[in-house]
Amino acid sequence: MVDVGGFDLTRLTPGFLADPYPTYRALREQNPVRRMPDGSLFLTRYADLARVYRDTQTFSSDKAVEFRPKFGDTPLYEHHTTSLVFNDPPRHSRVRRLIAGALTPRAIGGMEAGLVALVDRLLDRMAARTDLIADFAAAIPIEVIGNLLGVPPGEREPLRGWSLAILGALEPVVTPTAALRGNQAVTEFLDYLAVLTADRRARPADLDRDVLTRLLQADPDGDRLTQAELLHNCIFLLNAGHETTTNLIGNGLVALAQHPAERARLLADPGLVRSAVEEALRFESSNQLGNRITTASAALGGTTYPAGTPVTLCIGAANRDPAVFADPDRFDIGRSPNRHLAFAAGIHQCVGMSLARLEGAVAIGRFVARYPHYALARPPVRGMRARFRGFAAVPAVLNG
Ligand code: HEM
Prior knowledge:
With about 400 residues, the chain is of the alpha+beta class. It has helices at about 15-20, 20-30, 45-55, 65-70, 75-80, 90-100, 105-110, 110-125, 135, 140-150, 155-170, 175-200, 210-215, 225-240, 245-260, 260-270, 275-285, 315-320, 355-370; strands spanning about 35, 40-45, 60, 130, 290-295, 300, 305, 310-315, 375, 380, 390-395, 395.
């Protein structure tokens, strides 16, 4: 059993970043409400996460106070504190209603044909030796969200770099270089979106298909996003849907390569792809950590903690909790039920989950069908981030 006496989220080892699950397991068993040296709590039990997600009165998502010393008066601070994910009701409910209203099932359903065509184009041009991340997984979400917001294809090149820089500054430890990159990325992104939205205001696109045109509209009650809410939440949509979905596709393809019996099962029954995606989300959750802060004293694991205690929700650990998932370290593409927390739960549950599931199913399903004998050429290279779990590179041979 791993010794978790010294576990500290701000001092993670390469071994942990490569495979955090033995540590998560030891924490869940020995110290499920772990007090960190900085006074924050690290939760690893499913039941504790489910409770925190439900109790939004006691466990706040608002980062206005917590992020002040971390980011100062910077573009990153303004960005995060204006994004819906880091706000509480009533501000959160208002922005969420306007965004969820734009991401309708119809808008998402309307994207499927384009997504299939994009995935097939990528599959057609893949070389026999390839990198499953650069040449496939990372190329999909950026195009999908580019389409969602109507970013012209020729202008998409900087989106991935901006997104990675902004999310990189959300790691538990932020270096000055990471902060500088993140701030530059927010500023450049805002400048770009100001022009894009002004243009769309002047020339609205098809209301049924174009999410940005919908975001610019007032809702039936006459409410609409302010300019700052609009721009920062567009950045957030791009970020939220980009690395997470890249990692879902990459993690799913690696897991299938490493579990040949499960891959054979999927090939024999392609209808399992939706449940294979759910299992990839549970087994290697692409977003491993969530954060809340207590607004009042709260009892967790038999101890009462004061208001103002930061709480880290370890989704990756909860999704392998044997109290909820039988044989949790087993990758089982037919697992049912599979009520994982990869998209969180409660009022902040992922707005883009239907889109992410669709992208995962189309990308993984069509890849495996086209290249049923793909194999890892070398050990995949981990992204080495604690929050966003995925691979930086996955060298593979397609007919191996
Ligand atoms: C596999 C892919 C994805 C994963 C694992 C994921 C995961 C999550 C999680 C865990 C949260 C809750 C954060 C919290 O409250 O602590 C969240 C929120 C959110 N996600 Fe996703 N996400 C994915 C894809 C997407 C996509 C494709 C979009 C949009 C295009 C999106 C948009 C959002 C938004 C807007 C929120 C904030 C919701 C709110 O605060 O009410 N996500 N996501």
